[in-house]
Fold each of these.
Amino acid sequence: MMDDKVTQQHWLKALAAFELSQEELAEFEQQLSALSAQHLQAELRPGLSNNSKVEQYFYSSDLPEQAKSFNQYSALLQPSVLGSVNTTRPDFVGHMTSALPSFMPLMQKLMAALNQNNVKLETSGYFTDLERQVLAILHRTFYGSEYGEQAESFYQKTMHQPKQALGVFCSGGTLANIMALWVARNRLLSAYGVAEKGLMAALMSLGEEGYQGLAVLVSERGHYSLSKAADVLGIGRDNLVAVAVDDQHCIDLKDLETKLATLKAKRIKVMAIVGVAGATETGSIDDLKALADFAQGIDCHFHVDGAWGGAAIFSQRHRHKLKGIERADSITLDAHKQLYVPMGAGMVLFKDPERVNAIKHHASYIIRSDSKDLGAYTLEGSRPAVSLLLHAGLHLIGREGYGALIDHSVHLAQEFARIIRSSRDFELILEPRLNILSYRYCPEPYRSELNKALAAGDAESVVSINRLLSEKTIAIQVAQAAAQKGFVSRTQLHLPHYGDAPIHVFRVVLANPYTQVCHLQQILEEQRLIARAL
Amino acid sequence: MMDDKVTQQHWLKALAAFELSQEELAEFEQQLSALSAQHLQAELRPGLSNNSKVEQYFYSSDLPEQAKSFNQYSALLQPSVLGSVNTTRPDFVGHMTSALPSFMPLMQKLMAALNQNNVKLETSGYFTDLERQVLAILHRTFYGSEYGEQAESFYQKTMHQPKQALGVFCSGGTLANIMALWVARNRLLSAYGVAEKGLMAALMSLGEEGYQGLAVLVSERGHYSLSKAADVLGIGRDNLVAVAVDDQHCIDLKDLETKLATLKAKRIKVMAIVGVAGATETGSIDDLKALADFAQGIDCHFHVDGAWGGAAIFSQRHRHKLKGIERADSITLDAHKQLYVPMGAGMVLFKDPERVNAIKHHASYIIRSDSKDLGAYTLEGSRPAVSLLLHAGLHLIGREGYGALIDHSVHLAQEFARIIRSSRDFELILEPRLNILSYRYCPEPYRSELNKALAAGDAESVVSINRLLSEKTIAIQVAQAAAQKGFVSRTQLHLPHYGDAPIHVFRVVLANPYTQVCHLQQILEEQRLIARAL
């Protein structure tokens, strides 16, 4: 047992951390700002691969016994901050993480200062109402047209209704996709008591109606979170049926029809059809209208994964590309992608605000059934009021601003596509539908040889030339990243006209508002120099 | 199609939000700080129930077309901030959300400024290593003793190992519990290909070995997230078997034995036994050592839900209460509870760093199999670097500080229990094991009548007196919350000596370092005044 006096000293020291003076806080904030500024100016962009030189900073697994001073901690933090990835760099165009509006860190600070827990009114106060409003605004943006002149009264009636929810916030698109499919599964099998008795019992009952199992359909470009969802929900990754894509990497409706017929013949029940609105690898958008028709035809849940591309709804120029999304039963949207909110903010919207009741849950000390708490409808329990961050974005950037950001990114992608197309050493793999682009290194004489082999129907040569080009593309990407110059990512794509073997391509995500055409030209120049040195 | 000039104007305006001057930022930050300060000083604590007066501020579902100025937005935000719940108030002791160390909002601001995505090294840099280190520190705190003198080399070897993970961060305890049971399910059924073929196919194969289904066991005090997990994972809420509790609200080992025997007789396979370490409603801690023995005896996964109580490991005075936790296969821990990190930070630790491979997943453009990315092992995809916040806590509060905070809270709970026990009008329901306490209103003459009825074995009178006391307890809690005075929550507990009907009790969570004995006395005084006026 410890000495009471020592305990008291520790306690007072701990309490002091809650009651720092304005001066102490200002000084620490100043130190953190200086670190952050130093990082943003640094040319260094490390951490792109496993690195034992990095690990030296993080080798100790000892629990710190005593509190450090702020000066000590700032010094300790320096390598981490300087070693974080500068996602604001205009030539960092490989992933979906980019610069944020400068007011966002301030909003995040406010959010932490208020530290609301949106699971329940008792710990969220007005923030539950604010969250319901943000969800209503988004819902109306996607679905409002469906209600015509009734829209205003529909939203007035539903947005603050205890037993309804127009959607839920969650930590990101993966959880949003899981939520959507969870709702679809439980609604489909509610009569068989899936939530209570489990999936096996429910499927046995479904079996008595002659069904052999469940399936979810999505194109080959579906995000890997859907496969995770199929695993978690007990459906099985193999039962996430991958539908072929056309040459635009959109779902092939013929193949969808074939797959649906096969499943019907096998007496497999289709639980959901998922449309991709902004594929992670190619930016392509499925024909959502056609998918809505298919889903309607077999009376299954129609989900749209708009984690990336859903934000195009804000652009008057590009929103038509999402046509049909207003018929989706649920839509996934990531605020931390093209709505420029800090990491950790996803949403799933439900067209029918009653549908979330399929997964409703209660607990006696919290989320009672008569309250408007959103916690009854979320996969997560306690959770931050991230809706506040999107609320700030919606008001401080506005529809016009978000639309302009989308327009600019798509324009940039088109410009980059034009540059690649007119180059002699790079091959554009796909015309960008939104702001994701794929291309690869493909100089002479490989280009002519490839064309010859294609014309001659020489599949073997096509594969071997593509293999060489893939090797070069990978080598360039790795070298460019390691050189801490421009950063593009890479992925594998299966292109029917190149045969069965997938090819490796550069993947460019253009959402950073600092990125200009000159940065993209520079990235190509760097790649050329690296290629020459290979 | 819009006019290009207008588009250009919108674009420049949007870009301006990314490039605010130091002066603009300072002014907006000042406005937000003023709002926040105004809120923290306010006596108001609204939003505790559905309220149409609140809804008036949040009635519009229109997407804002144009960006507002910061002044306009601050004004718009005022009711929300003032209407949020002041979780720092010393008499706000009803939930697990409390005051935070004052440096936390600054760390959260830094985190947003850096906006790292810990799914992958390419967007997290050194923060993946930092996260692995934080997980190693926590793992060693719980499991280090198991490795004796080998501990240092064990952690050196595993913490940065690509194909291993000592744990994962997630947005909260609910996801942590889901992750733990997902791992348990997939590991148990991996030979039957549960991840690929689905739960039904796997259970059919298990059925060929003579098993009829799966079950998870936890005491009646298990958190509702476990029921959600059973639903999501396809096991079924009914197959989360609730084991009775003893008079300390700890799992009744006799009943566990009976339930295990029943399941064995029914040929139901036990997938996991879950120990509760700090029950949400009562703060009670199961006999983890005994549960470890049971789990070992039937070779099943042993999970400990330490979302609340796990932090007691930091206290030299109270860590012995967690004895046996070092034998758990997995442990859930919430950093946003008693580690005083802002909302949105949970963890699950895995004793065996290989075990997470049961749910591993990859995607070709991201999280490749040879990298040390933690994204391969998380339920979530893109996610913030919340580990940074805990890193700050560990270094700026230290083991000593966290220990002192726990010691103080437990001491406060014991003091409050003493006060209630010696009062004539309140009944202590349970001696606090940690820092959660339940009591109810129970004045004369009810107390004497109840004791008489109990002595006489008059079950009917016991129930009717308890019903009256429950009504009064509820009325007091509601009135106190509505009066915006002290806030305690309430829940229902089933107490064997009071018969089958549950009773309603006040629930007090003592983790706010600002709370002192005088605040608790004042809460009782308020409740007495309310009771008199009833």
Note: The domain at 401-533 of chain B is CATH 3.90.1150.170 (Aspartate Aminotransferase, domain 1).
Amino acid sequence: MEHDGFVVRPIGRVESPLTDRKGAPRQSDESAPEAWLVFEERVRPALADLRPGDQIVLLTWLHRADRDVLAVYPRGDRTRPETGVFSTRAPDRPNPIGLHRVAVLAADGLRLRVTGLEAIDGTPLLDVKPILRGVDER
Amino acid sequence: MEHDGFVVRPIGRVESPLTDRKGAPRQSDESAPEAWLVFEERVRPALADLRPGDQIVLLTWLHRADRDVLAVYPRGDRTRPETGVFSTRAPDRPNPIGLHRVAVLAADGLRLRVTGLEAIDGTPLLDVKPILRGVDER
């Protein structure tokens, strides 16, 4: 099968004071701490144009997720009906890719300091994309 | 190496009249055709709560991408300096994950009709997430 699977290779990882999933806020508008993104040497040219003030979308691999989960109780409330994970931001899902909107606070070689990030220490980084005004914000 | 790589498994694929990369608009505010998202039976419970009118973020695997590209000429203009791919939305990048904001027009079992999508026919689907007002739009 041509599309049986694809291998994502981390481009770096998160350095954060958050060390367990329960401590990670569920949505990025809750209080999450600033964090460092530490990139691998092999991708240095890809991040050469990132600057403080840039608004970015960060894609991560939620490596502690349970990939067999297809439906969850909203906010863990078992008195409510289960919801399909594609209608939630729950980390447990078939391909646990995290989507985080952050701003760059500082750039230092292979390290970027970013605003509040709801990802635990060691979370692998998959991609960084700029926010496009008028597309992502419309 | 614990983080040497992770395998993403497509949850479905795009059905679109777009059949080659050159025909695919680069940004989703350009004219892209409506498309069908066709999901695999195994993820049926995950999409059970998606409804017409839902605003979603679609993650795809840009399977024609060149993963060795780290910098590109903006809009292909070779008179301008190259830009690191993490500051662009170019499909060629180390982990070619596409990020698309679309609305659900119709839901029919394992098929979802969505608004303009700049992804070619056969593009593998990786994940669907709801847009969160106040988080993604702030």
Note: The CA atoms of residues 46 and 128 of chain A lie 9 Å apart.
